[in-house]
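Postdoc handover notes: sequence design on the structure in folder B. Input tokens:
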């Protein structure tokens, strides 16, 4: 599904209800941002096929949590392309493990506590990408052009990054969610850093924010949520 086509960028959202991935077409390159959970592997591949048989040239990961990276190695093999993640997330990706983030509400705290006992879930393990490389501005601009920019947006996890396109669109990973109108991430290792990262995103000119759970949202919605959180 195309969510935006502007200034040479075409951005598609994958048809994956659990975790949103984005496909960015820019000139001759096509980049996949995040890869979802194992059970959505075929849905991600189908979403890529649906854009007209373009090949994926690189996979960028917003952070090293299982629900966004589980198919990275599979898709890397399928498209013969490299996987990139922030320097801070590199060891996790190469080893195929991460830590369960802390719950920020009663329900997510219960999930966090129960996670080791949930059968077949294994949130902290995934197929490793031993050849993954660090994602920096040089790599980003090579594939997505000079008007793309990386922004560190820690809080949900310390390795979280956002990808800014044209200072107009931000792919924010789990820096925020958009679930039932709520933007605050249900899991975060450092809640103060979540708010700082929201401020950093608001300090850009980005009008459209694309989270990895739920639909893209307008800047005004983030301003409203930010003001509500800082005044509480
Ligand atoms: Zn996450």
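Designed sequence:
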């Amino acid at each position: 599904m195309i969510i935006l086509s502007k200034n040479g960028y075409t951005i598609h959202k994958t048809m994956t209800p659990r975790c949103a991935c984005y496909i960015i077409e820019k000139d001759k390159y096509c980049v996949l941002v995040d890869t979802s959970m194992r059970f959505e592997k075929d849905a991600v591949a189908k979403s890529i096929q649906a854009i007209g048989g373009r090949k994926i040239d690189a996979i960028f990961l917003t952070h090293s949590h299982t629900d966004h990276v589980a198919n990275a190695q599979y898709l890397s093999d399928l498209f013969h392309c490299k996987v990139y993640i922030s320097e801070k997330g590199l060891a996790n990706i190469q080893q195929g493990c991460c830590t369960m983030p802390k719950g920020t509400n009663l329900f997510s705290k219960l999930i966090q506590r129960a996670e080791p006992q949930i059968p077949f879930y294994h949130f902290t393990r995934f197929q490793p990408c031993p050849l993954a490389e660090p994602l920096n501005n040089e790599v980003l601009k090579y594939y997505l052009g000079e008007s793309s920019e990386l922004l560190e947006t820690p809080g949900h996890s310390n390795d979280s990054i956002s990808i800014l396109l044209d200072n107009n669109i931000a792919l924010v990973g789990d820096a925020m969610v958009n679930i039932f109108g709520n933007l605050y991430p249900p899991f975060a290792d450092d809640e103060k850093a979540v708010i700082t990262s929201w401020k950093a995103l608001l300090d850009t000119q980005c009008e459209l924010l694309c989270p990895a759970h739920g639909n893209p949202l307008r800047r005004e919605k983030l301003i409203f949520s930010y003001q509500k959180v800082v005044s509480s």
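Context for whoever picks this up: Residues 63, 65, 156-157, 174 surround zinc ion (CB under 6 Å). Don't rerun without checking with the PI first.
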